[in-house]
Each structure stands twice: as C-alpha cells, then as structure tokens.
Design brief:
- With 439 residues, the protein is an alpha/beta fold.
- It folds into two domains: 34-63 and 325-438, Alpha-Beta Complex (Aspartate Aminotransferase, domain 1), CATH 3.90.1150.10; 69-323, 3-Layer(aba) Sandwich (Aspartate Aminotransferase, domain 2).
- It contains 14 helices and 14 strands.
- α6 (177-181) links the parallel β5 and β6.
- The longest helix is centred in the C-terminal third of the chain and has 25 residues, at 326-350.
- The radius of gyration is 22 Å and the shape is globular.
- The relative contact order is 0.15.
- The chain binds 4'-deoxy-4'-aminopyridoxal-5'-phosphate.
- 4'-deoxy-4'-aminopyridoxal-5'-phosphate is lined by residues 59, 114-116, 119, 142-144, 211, 215, 244, 246-247, 270.
- 4'-deoxy-4'-aminopyridoxal-5'-phosphate (PMP) binds at residues 59, 114-116, 119, 142-144, 211, 215, 244, 246-247, 270.
- It comes from Shewanella canadensis.
- This is Aspartate aminotransferase family protein.
C-alpha cells in the first residue's frame, strides 16, 4: 500500500508541467486528483490501494468495464503485429461492416480518433454537401471542442439571452465573431420555437446537430415531437439532420436513434465504440458521405487522420461491439431502468429535493426536486453545485466513482449487486447532505 500522500505529491509535480496539472479537466478533484493504478471489470484501484466501483467508465467510454479478457487478448495479439501502418488493414473493413450492419441508415462509415473529430467531420461534410455555411445546435449541448460545436454552453446565465431565442455565445475566449454568426442556437425540446428560429436561417443552414440524450442539457431524452419536427424541417429545407451519438450509441443496438421514428443523414459516434481506445466515427447516407470520396473528380471534403482506423482501436472496438449484441444492450438498459427506479426510491426515503434523469444505461442525479426540462433549468447554481460535490465526494469516499455532475453510466460487468450497494450508500449520502439543502 502506497502512502496516502502519494497522489498529492504527484499532483504537485504535475502542476509544474501541465496547465492545471492535467491534460483533461475531468480528472480533477479537490484538493488533488487521485491517480489510477489498475482496473478490472467494474472496479478501479488507485495508487493509494483503494478500490471503487466505477460508474464513470472513463466518461461513459467503457461499455464492458476495464481489461475485458477478450479485448485484452485480441489487442495484445494485434500489438505484437504492429500498432499502425501507412497501409490499410483488414480489420478496418470488418469493423466498418459490423457497425453498418447495426443501423440501416449507415450506408457508409469513416473512422476518426475522437468524438470531437467525429462531430467536426459531420459538420464539415454537411457544409460540403449543401454548400451552406451555418449549423444549428441545441442550447447548452456539449459536442466536443470544434469551434462551431462548442458554442452556447457558457456558465454565465447573464449571457444566455432570451430563452425563446438563445444567444450564440462562445466558450473559448477569442472565438471569432464569424464563427458565432454561423451557429444558430435552438431551445431543447421546444419544437415550435426551434422551428421559428430555423426558419430565419433556412437558406443558410447546412445542418441541425442534436444529441438525443444531452448530458449538459440535463440528461432528459429529446422528445419524439422535437426530433420529428427537426427531421421534417431539415428535409423540407434541404438541410441535413446530424445526430451526435458519441455517448448515446450505447442505448440501442443501432444507437439511441432506434427509439425514434426518423433516420438522420449523419451520425457521429465515439467513446464506447473504441473498446477502451481513442476513437470516433461518422456514418450515414452514402451520397452525403461521398463528399469525402477521394476518387471523385472533385473532392468536396478532403478528410484524413494519421491514426484514423488504427488497427489497435479497430480490433478493440470490433471485439467490444461484437460482445455488445442485442441481448447485452437490452440487459444493460434494463439494469439502467432498475438503477434509476432504485435511486428514485432512496431519494423519496431520504426526503430530499433531488431527482434522477437518464435513459438506457445512463443516469444523472440533480439536486432539484423536479427533472429540469432544458440547459437553463438543469444549470446548478452555487448552492446546488456545493451540495452535488458533497454527494459525489461522499460516494467517492465510500467506494463509488461518479462523473462530477453526479452522473454515471453502467457497464456490462455490473449486476444487481453493485446497483444495490450503490443505492444503499447513496441513501446514506443523501441523509448526510440533507442539512445542506436548508442551510
Ligand atoms: N459529443 C458528446 C455528446 C460527448 O459527450 C463528447 C465527450 N464527452 C464529445 C462529443 C467529444 O468527444 P471526445 O471527448 O472523444 O472528443
């Protein structure tokens, strides 16, 4: 067992080397992040020797937990053969075939290296296909770091503007004014207002980008009415409909879109389809995907990436997704349903103004009595943030790793046992933080 000060010591050194002491803000915790030693199944052990049940799953990217024996075996075999070449590999074709077989709307597919890159490539493909400059997105939705995709998630309510016509506000200082002008922001699950806004830009919009279960918007499912309205509008105005299924692809065999009576033109994927390795992909209508075809006389969107479709990711992804068959998807979604219902029960028992949202194998606990309907409503003020951090810390100290918004995802390694353990500790945690609601 390592000294409990070891993580603090490492972090002091990390602070001298990286801004904030890390390369991804999500690993930060107060007073210092903990460092991972190893992980197996749904358990992660830190360098202090403490083991926790992992509901964070590398920010929803691990569908089979850690070090799944089949993934480890197949990746090891590939590593021994080489990790990346300036040649294509057969496994890329096998994996493309597998993913396209899961969704009738996936005529063609291309692999990239992250969710950010997948969304960016969809937006660029949409612009190339339509010859139009603008993209529309839901207020507050996170779609990665591409300039246009990251607009409108500011944490300063003063900048939000009118709820029925949200401002196009930057996240990163220095975002060009021109970028903001090319992003049209629509309110979530409000078809009428969204359509009124889209109408104003109808000849300039390349696409509408939507996440069907957006985490930062509150992890509430997009309504059928909203999604159908966006599909009809985009079809009628020759714009494309793009789904960001970077996280939500886990919720259906062919993605969360299986639950909606529409087919998008393009779908961005990432996270779990890499089987634990960095990945992204975009798939959809063959004629749209063809803007990337270098064999065309005129290549509308030249598209490449040094590590795209590297065989390690392809082998890991194909193994993971083959294991995540229809039966596994249904079983995991049922476990998610059970978890959300047990969480609701313990919230009622603890009698605190909290609630749970989510769908499929995803959940989020809000320090609010009622499920928020959009980004503005799900926004946690200073007091709620304080209470939420207290709960996340309690869960962490008692053996459960969460995403810091008090969200989590399930892995196929989990069973009713971990769910029951979690809800028991959650009940204790809710009782502990209860006085904070009235302080
Ligand atoms: N879209 C969504 C919905 C996401 O949740 C994320 C990552 N959290 C991204 C895009 C960006 O993916 P990545 O971090 O792999 O770039």
């Amino acid at each position: 067992k390592v000294s409990p000060d070891r993580s603090a010591e490492l972090y002091r050194k990390a602070l001298t080397l990286m801004p904030g002491g890390c390369s991804r803000n999500t690993v930060l915790r107060s007073p210092n992040p903990l460092y991972a030693e190893s992980a197996k199944s749904c358990y992660v052990t830190d360098i202090e020797g403490v083991t926790r049940v992992d509901f964070a799953n590398n920010m929803a990217a691990l569908i089979h937990g850690h070090a799944h024996p089949k993934i480890v075996a197949n990746v090891t075999e590939q590593l021994n053969k080489g990790s990346a070449f300036t040649l294509a590999t057969e496994v890329e074709i096998d994996y493309a075939e597998h993913l396209c077989s899961r969704n009738a709307g996936f005529g063609k597919i291309r692999f990239v290296n992250s969710g950010t890159e997948a969304v960016m490539s969809c937006l660029k493909a949409a612009r190339a296909y339509t010859g139009r400059p603008k993209i529309a997105k839901v207020e507050g939705a996170y779609h990665g770091l591409y300039d246009h995709a990251e607009v409108s998630q500011t944490a300063s309510p003063a900048n939000w503007g009118d709820e029925s016509n949200p401002n196009s506000v930057p996240v990163a200082f220095g975002t060009p004014e021109a970028t903001l002008k090319d992003v049209v922001v629509i309110p979530f699950n409000d078809a009428e207002r969204a359509i009124t806004i889209l109408d104003k830009h109808k000849d300039e919009l390349a696409c509408v980008l939507v996440d069907l279960l957006p985490h930062r918007v509150g992890l509430i499912p997009a309504s059928q009415e909203f999604v159908v309205a966006l599909r009809e509008w985009t079809t009628n105005h020759n714009a494309l409909l793009v789904f960001d299924e970077v996280i939500t692809f886990r919720n259906g065999y062919g993605g969360a879109q299986d639950n909606y009576p529409v087919t998008p033109d393009l779908t961005a994927m990432g996270k779990m389809i890499g089987g634990g390795f960095p990945v992204g992909a975009l798939a959809g209508r063959s004629d749209v995907m063809d803007v990337m075809n270098p064999l065309n006389d005129k290549v509308l969107f030249p598209h490449s990436g040094t590590f795209s479709a590297n065989p390690v990711t392809m082998v890991a992804g194909l193994t993971a997704m083959t294991l995540f068959d229809r039966e596994a998807v249904a079983k995991l979604n049922a476990l998610g349903e059970q978890l959300r219902s047990q969480i609701s029960e313990v919230i009622a028992i603890a009698d605190v103004p909290a609630c749970v949202t989510g769908d499929g194998s995803m959940f989020r606990i809000h320090m609010k009595a009622n499920p928020p309907k959009n980004y503005r409503a799900s926004f946690a003020d200073a007091k709620e943030s304080r209470i939420r951090t207290a709960l996340v810390d309690y869960l962490f100290d008692n053996g459960f790793m969460m995403i810091n918004t008090c969200s989590g995802t399930l892995s196929t390694e989990m069973t009713g046992k971990e769910i029951n353990q979690f809800t028991q500790v959650l009940l204790d945690g809710l009782r502990k933080i209860k006085p904070l609601f009235s302080s």
